[in-house]
Amino acid sequence: MTHGPIWLSEADVTASIDLGAAIGALARVLAAEADGKAQNMQKTLTMVGANDALQAIGGSVAAEGLCGTKTWVNVAGKSQTILVLFSLTDGSLRAVIEATALGQIRTAAMSGVGTDWMAQEGATELAIIGTGKQALPQIAAVAAVRPLKRVRIFSRTEASRLALANAVRSKFPEIEVVAATSLQGAVEGAPIVTLCTNATEPFFTSAMAGHGTHINAVGAIVPARSEFTGDIFPRCAEIAVDTLDGVKELSREFIDYFGGGQASWDRVRPISQLIRAGRRRPANADLTLFKPMGVGIADLAVAVEVLKRSEARALGHALPERIRMDLPLRTQKAAE
Fold first, then answer.
1. 3-class DSSP state for residue 44?
2. Which among 219, 268, 201 has a CA at the least distance from the CA of 239?
3. Between the CA atoms of 105, 22, 1 and 90, what dihedral angle is there, to the nearest 10 degrees?
4. Residue 165 and residue 135: Cα distance in Å, rounded?
């Protein structure tokens, strides 16, 4: 069936997909990446002001016959993101997607994938450190892949802890929520710990991590930030990332430890390889660690699923037919 290009709004995106579907779509595309049937485009940016940047990421998913880019400009901390999908068959435009919600879903879904493949199968408790805008989606992502019964929340501000606790109770009334008064109290004995902060100095140490813990280290994706200390790494039975190049370039935690020669980078595996090999959490593992940095094919994976579901439900707005025009080669002066 041939489809003309469509515009998909934020409302179309959120109506067509949920976190569970996004996690499944992401796992499929990551497996395709391991088979050489999907690839990332290197992130590119140019500064357009002292602290403002025009950015683009993207990739190609040959398994789905689509490629595309997500682009946005941050100006004074504000942005409106769009994602454009093209056909790999004939180069035609397939969709333009408003992608702010899509990006938030993608970020949470990646943690869902990591948790699904690396955490204890029956884990029922999560500790989340950080209460920013990604905190609730991160909790939802873990709840999508594990039977959560209890969530412990900690951040430096009591008001933000209580606000997130109320939001979790509203969305997931079946889950017990505890607004912890200390970091140690939040993480002690928790089988899953998600770090989702803007910390510039590491705060989560090996001594805080109980045997059997899985760690999602989500927050520190630029060299100026760091969430956990290097003594976590030696205890890890499995260390996975969404992009090996990304952690080598941008993760201070990984650069300081592996770049400093304390261990071989061979210990760090792309999550796509674990999925392709069907390799889940090793038996009797002490710690496991997943570090997502953000990759273009993750956005593409969710966008492709959104497009398929939107077309099936006739969502979106048809874009005008593209008509090629003669070039305006004669200047007005020459025509007089």
1. strand
2. 268
3. 70
4. 10
Q: How far apart are CA 180 and CA 261, in angstroms?
A: 37
- Provide the token pair at 309: 């579901």
Q: Is the pLDDT of residue 71 over 90?
A: yes
CATH of domain 111-291: 3.40.50.720
**SS3 state at 241:** strand
Distance CA 223, CA 250 (A): 5
Whether 214 and 236 have beta carbons less than 8 Å apart is answered as: no
- What residue type is assigned to position 280 of the chain? R
> Cα–Cα–Cα angle for 58, 16, 78, nearest 5°?
50
In this structure, the strands spanning 93-98 and 236-241 are unpaired
Buried/exposed 93-123: b ≥16 CB within 10 Å, e otherwise: ebbbbbbebbbbbbbbbbbbbbbbbbbbeeb
Confidence of residue 195 (pLDDT cuts 50, 70, 90): very high
Expressed in angstroms, the distance from the first to the final Cα of the chain is 49
> In the predicted model, is pLDDT for residue 336 greater than 60?
no
CA Rg, the chain, in Å?
22
Q: How far apart are CA 273 and CA 258, in angstroms?
A: 20
Is beta strand 287-291 parallel, antiparallel or unpaired with respect to 214-217?
parallel
Instruction: Parse the chain into domains and list their residue ranges.
Output: 6-103+296-320, 111-291
Q: Could you tell me which CATH class the domain 6-103+296-320 is placed in? A: alpha beta
